[in-house]
């Protein structure tokens, strides 16, 4: 079976690349087309909805939010990364801001509404005790480059005051003085999940299960070949060798035997409870729980 799989082309994608290059998909009868989505999880969700993708691997908060708000085109079928994500808060290099606490009432750039960069802005506001409305708007900027240009008030993009993106992906732009670090925030939940179109989950569950098994094998290979992983990241994903080595010390992928499982407490309930508290979700808890019961499945 052929599957179109969307992923974010960052260091976290390394086990996916290993699953492809080492033949873990093909050994299970799968032909997998890996499609990079540098614009992130919001775009992945959009592509699941318009049937451009069969499977998407992205940020927990974005996909849980989508299901909780009533999206039925995809289901959450597995856990990919169980360690939290470190979101860096950045502004323009010459901007006046020096601390994330100064962002109340400011404009926060996001890749898309519903993306991780959007959801985590609310979590940041909640943790820092900002008063509602937390911010003065969310310029939608699509790409990481546009986000960086936006906080530097470059022509051709809407201006913003700060944005949030994964720390090690952003670090090289601190090093070259393009943007400025003003803080960070960690997700209160495991950071990456695996999602599949509802039609496939209902009619091709064996193939989806085989895909998850191949990802498990990719994780096993990553964990036992860390030097090869650093080399791959350095040569293919625009990170320095030093940063790749430092990142590997911080990440914990899901135990390979548990990729097919979703911990209801840490992945689902903790995520939607924080999103409700932050004001990202405004339907009743009963409605949200009902949607998630249908939208989170174990194969």
From TrEMBL:
Boundaries of every Ca3427-like PBP domain copy: 87-185
Per the annotation, which location comes first and is thus the protein's main one? periplasm
Source organism, top-level taxon: Eukaryota
- Give GO cellular component annotations, separated by semicolons: periplasmic space
Q: Any coiled-coil ranges, and where?
A: none
Q: Which Pfam families match?
A: NMT1_2 (PF13379), PBP2_Ca3427_like (PF22384)
Keyword list (alphabetical) reads:
Signal
Gene3D superfamilies in alphabetical order? Periplasmic binding protein-like II
Subcellular localization is given as:
Periplasm
Question: What family is it from?
Answer: Belongs to the bacterial solute-binding protein SsuA/TauA family.
| Name used for this protein in its record | CYFA0S02e06788g1_1
